[in-house]
Design brief:
Elements lengths: L14 E6 L39 H9 L14 E2 L11 H9 L15 H7 L3 E7 L5 E7 H9 L2 H6 L3 E7 L1 H10 L8 E7 L8 H8 L5 H16 L2 H9 L3 H28 L9 H6 L9 H5 L10 E7 L15 E4 L4 E4 L2 E4 L1
Parallel strand pairs: 1-2, 1-5, 5-6, 6-7, 7-10
Antiparallel strand pairs: 3-4, 8-9
Helix pairs in contact: 2-6, 8-10
Amino acid sequence: MSWSIPKPMESITNYNVMMLHGALGADKGIKEDNSLVEANRDTSFRGKGHIGKYDSENRLTYWLSKNAFEEPDSMRNVHDSYLYSWRSFTNPANSSKNNAVELGDRTWNKDKKFGGRRALVEEAQEVKAIITQEVVTDSGIRIDTTEKGQTALEIIRQNPDRYRQLASRYILIGHSMGGVVSREYVQGNFYNGDVDKIITLDSPHEGTGALNMIVAKNVSEDFGENIKKNILKSVPNTVSSAAFFSLVLTGDFGNLISGVVGLACYLALDEIGDAAATLASPQKYFSTDSLVHYVDPKKHGFQTIDSLNRRPYIADSLPMFRIMAGRNGMTFTDPQDHLAAFYYMGDRATCFCWQIHLLS
């Protein structure tokens, strides 16, 4: 006679918990390089888009490791932790649909443009894959060999009993656009049915115009020309024609020069202020970045967030969602409408209400 208590889904003994970063400029990604080593052997390069370090107390990865998963210090690294936050997307400014391919499509790097890197769901497995097995040499000597990383993962996959011991299912934690990427994966046509839970943190599920605003603030290359044009436009409006010619006719060139120089400085500082704001901004986006088009709530059709929200919601085939939003965050188009959001998906206009947990 026996009895058992089922573990909650949050039991992490057989889960990879993956953290996906939000929107970033293209420069934060990984450039094409066919010499990049596989994740298991990469000890230094994570890119600039990972959302936490394993050894920094002020980062989210460390906090979750310590407080949520109660991992000892010896586990707080990519090879041992339940969390996987190893690298950024190769192009964070790509559309969420394209980045979802990099998240879960096993054929993502089939051309080896990024060397030994693989889809993120595979990397989360391979960094923890290790196997020791007995090998018989040509001389008949039996020795134990240990394999790690991709080689170990391929061997383990050939043995169902061993594969079941390796975490092969996922809980996705997506910040900002990372949450939308998670949805694009599980609602896409290359989904492997391997995700049991998705947690999104302030993700723009209805789109946002924030990237358009950043693009509009980017200073163009004709920085100097803009200053000149603005000065020529503003002088007649700032100094009346009568006052301007009065200064010329009376020979009061000192005040005339002072006025023009002062006006020029004012306008130049305004331009420089825009430039400084752009340079100081942590991200730079351009109109050519596919993410700008994708996340625009006014865009429709292929490669837009609108197309994602119009897909049928098939509850039986999708994981559990928990959508968490900060007050006045970007989870919804209207930041004041933060109690519930309704999506009309598919031709049947099925109304689906997301569960919201408000954070102060």
